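[audit] Reproducing an earlier prediction to check determinism. Same input, same settings, fresh worker. If the tokens differ from the archived copy the diff job will pick it up downstream; this log only records the rerun itself.
[audit] input (226 residues):
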Amino acid sequence: MAPPSRPLRSDLLAKRALRMLDSARALLTIPLTWAYRSSDRRDLIDADVAQWLAVLQVTGQGQGLHSLLYAFPEFRSLFYHRLRNGNATGALLGRLMCRVWRPTATLELTTAEIGPGLFVAHGHCTSLAAERIGANCYVHHGVTVGWDYRSHRTPVIGNDVFIGAGAMVVGAVTVGDGARIGANAVVLCDVPAGSTAVGVPARIVQPGSCATVVQLDEAKVAHVLP
């Protein structure tokens, strides 16, 4: 077995240059902190930062708002949402700065009341138009939460809810605290707290069981299905 080759001097220099470029690009997000300092939503943004760093398992000095704004366009989407729903100065700065520091184009956050600590994984083709979203929720890409054009309101999402990739939660439904929505599930009725909903239309898996499945109320499902 041949001994590992020594890294080329040019590779060492290139790695150093890449680190310097990353640091410089991160510094370019400093103007975004002007909007942060001008906003009355700093507590919410701080909670978002803490949750994202925890989910991403990022540790180390200097890892915080700057790093997330630089590295994650989906975090910028959430950041601008906080500014937009805050005081006028922060909202104006956010509107101007999003022209330069772009958010994820296909991540729509039209829910006015979003609790602290929302984490959005990837965020592509995701629309969150709920009545309310609680604290510390985790949403994957390709998720739709919103109207079904037949109900009097949009969904209410509780605290600590997980929504898997491609899932849909539509209509006047309530997803309880700690519930989990499986990938590609279509939720048309309430999901109790701590439960897991899977399938199309979604069914409730009993807590602590991977085998027992409880059908949702068929009468309720019928009124939202064509």
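[audit] rerun output stored. Observation attached for the diff report: The two ends are 66 Å apart (CA to CA).
[audit] end
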